[in-house]
Amino acid sequence: MRILQIIQQKQYRGAEIFACQLSSHLMNLGNEVEIVSIYDGDALLPFKNEIPTLSNQDSNRYLDLQGWKKLADIIEGFKPDIIQANAADTLKYAVFSKLIYRWKAPIVYRNASTTSYYIKNHFSKFINSFLLFNVDRVISVSHASKRDLNKVFPFTKNKTVVVPIGIDPIKTAETAIAFSPRRSNIIHVGSFTREKNHKGLLSIFKKLTTLNQNYFLHLIGEGPLRNVMEEEVHQLDLIDSVKFYEGVRNPLPYISAADILVLPSNIEGLPAVLLEAMFCKTPVVAYNVGGISEIVSSQTGSLIEKDDEDNFVNAVLKTLGNPDFEQIETAHKMVIKDYMNKEIAKKFVEVYEAVAPQPPKGE
């Protein structure tokens, strides 16, 4: 099959990284894959071919005739069997380009988060309803994401399937990271956006440091709220206990070096970073939001109800003080068995073939 993947931006964010990893596995399965990015960026994403850019700014995403035409031209040249829109503005570009320039390829939309979180008014509900009506299939990253989408937009029930995210393990020894063994190293990986709740994370960390000064927080990620969070670190007098990282292409060595990974997000679809931590045998503590409960349970980690900072702190203390090695091993085996991208890619192909059946071989 010929598959065109549309990503939001050339950035180190879960949706973009997964789309690139997925595309590489799809190519290994014998498919032809191209990726196009709506907005430019500095990230060196894990895809061997060039990734062209449609537009340089998001201010005109509702009326970017030039960008929609550029997408149509790419489709005309590549002639894909399937277009996959990967979250955010990619859906707008795919649908508006198709309606205006009349190309025929079916659109698959990858729903990687919690839709209701973004539907703030009648206009956003109307426009998203219109966009989703014009896609052929929705692939939700978790059963929780599917339920949420179907509740907000009931007409999507018959066009939504669940295919989870997976991971691509990279040997951590190749770029080994060593954190100080004299302190407990806590890590968080995620874009600096309101969804990831860095402010709540710093509040939790502040509570930990009042109990023990020997904790250190490593923050890996980029995003619009990074400067705000750097200021928050100063305000909380945590400057000597927090380190920010950016431009990290492969977080696994950092995750592997940490004593624990924490994820107190406001919303999630099914975060790959938890799977990566489990693969690295780094214990996890996370809020029970979105599809997190589909991978984190008492058998694989610590699941805390949203905004319960005190119980989150207690779970971190318990995990650091007495790691549950049976729990860590169970989580690792689960990831190996069910969440490797090499196998996840085959499930995507099944969805593509159902939407755009290919002629029998020989025809």
Automatic annotation (TrEMBL):
Q: Which InterPro entries does the UniProt record give?
A: Glyco_trans_1 (IPR001296), Glyco_trans_4-like_N (IPR028098)
Protein's UniProt keywords contain Repeat: no
Q: Which residues form the Glycosyltransferase subfamily 4-like N-terminal domain?
A: 13-169
Q: Which domain of life is it from?
A: Bacteria
Q: Which UniProt keywords apply?
A: Transferase
- Please tell me whether the keyword Transferase is annotated for this protein: yes
One of the record's GO molecular function terms: glycosyltransferase activity
Q: Which residues form the Glycosyl transferase family domain?
A: 184-332
One short Pfam name that applies is Glyco_transf_4
Question: What SUPFAM superfamilies does UniProt report for this protein, alphabetically?
Answer: UDP-Glycosyltransferase/glycogen phosphorylase
UniProt name for this protein = Glycosyl transferase group 1
Starting at the broadest rank, the lineage of the source organism is: Bacteria, Pseudomonadati, Bacteroidota, Flavobacteriia, Flavobacteriales
